[in-house]
Amino acid sequence: MSDLTELSAVEAVAAVKNREASPSDLVNAALARIEAVNEPVNALPTVCADRARAAAESVDVGAAPLAGLPIAVKDLNDVAGVRTTYGSPIYADHVPERSDIMVEGLEAQGAIPLAKSNTPEFGAGANTFNEVFGKTRNPWNTALTCGGSSGGSAVALATGMVWLATGSDLGGSLRTPASFSGVVGMRPSPGIVARSSATASYDMLSVQGPMARTVEDVALMLDAMAGQHGEDPISRPAPVTSYLATAQAAARPAKVAFSPDLGFLPVDRRVREVVAGAVRRFEELGATVEEACPDLSDTPDIFQTLRAALFATGHASDLENHRDKLKPDVVWNIEKGLALSADDIGRAERGRSALYARVAKFFEEYDLLACPTALVPPFDVDQRYVEEIDGHRFDNYVDWLGVTYAITCTSCPAISVPCGMTEDGLPVGIQLVGRPRGDAELLGFANLFQKATGISTKPIEPRG
């Protein structure tokens, strides 16, 4: 059973389809691994073993692309009949009757939700802790944070508790924990993955995305997630050629832009050195690498304004009815949104439109933009967020995520891939950004890069 958890998702699906293993074997192997390693990291606080075992008995292996593969679902997404808290005491006992449409889509493709992965309250913040389940810890050093808000998913993957996991990304919520945990996380273009939303169906900032230990596994999962859905007005049809096939048959990029700081951010020396060395892999693949970046200097105002408006849209009633149960950061974000004027929002929208035009022009010259995924390596799990880097102080709990939220504002697809380690043994991710709507092409470039690094994708044991 332990050997099954070391397989990639692509290998595990192949094993089931070749009758070398069954969905029940995979479920039992994952449950055994959860029992062995979850306690010190607290990645999967809710396990739905009976539901998963029943699903494993009924899945049509031949017709289902994911063939009964167990997955973790972030605790922001409903799974029918399974406790789903959104990381908030307000919903500590919430059990939804219907799954999120993204989860329904994955189940229709043969995925089996096995557990809910931990997240900060309403996904707010890049350190995974909440008042319902407590802290999720980094398996590379359990004294440190795994990032967030998809921290539980990232840690479950790094330790081999599941082969695939869902993530969501507003300002870096799946990219940051992927970097901190040494796994792969992709933010697809808006509309690629259909999602449920009762309050912000037309939002283009927040997306659902796949997480795994390899780029090919991420592509496999995106194939299962992608597609148009009548309940999501911005969703798009799945591509004719699968993402996995494109990733496996990728051509190299001709011209890669590299920016160590996106032109406006402080970056920890340890991260800067690892990423600068790793980007040279593209030169070894035959690409030209130049230091270049589109102008992203106005993204802090654009992002903070539109994010605050989104929080007010989705959580004003929570503030009105349950203020005492919300963490201070969430209260701040909702109140910031409620205080915005129409002029504030209009200015941010005009800025985002101009930004998109600049970025589209930039990608006429470059095939790929490479930069760090996070400004710092993993930090103390008891520190709520990064307050300062090299003398530069951040005003709030979101500002230190500028290297990811700046890319969110462009609507371009982005993926974090492990690219090396700090001198004290902590993983560092490189963020690869593709041209607008270039999701398939980006996966191909990322797959070439990951294979060129030679970095192990096997599960690790939690380390003190």
Annotation keywords:
464 residues; alpha+beta; Amidase signature (AS) enzymes; 16 helices; 38% helix; globular
Describe this structure in words.
The chain is α+β, with helices and mostly antiparallel strands and 464 residues long. It has a single domain (2-300, 341-453), classed as Alpha-Beta Complex (Amidase signature (AS) enzymes), CATH 3.90.1300.10. The chain contains 16 helices and 17 strands. Helix 6 (151-158) packs parallel to helix 7 and helix 12 (299-322) crosses helix 15. The longest helix is centred in the C-terminal third of the chain and has 24 residues, at 299-322. The two termini are 25 Å apart. The model has no long low-confidence stretch (mean pLDDT 97).
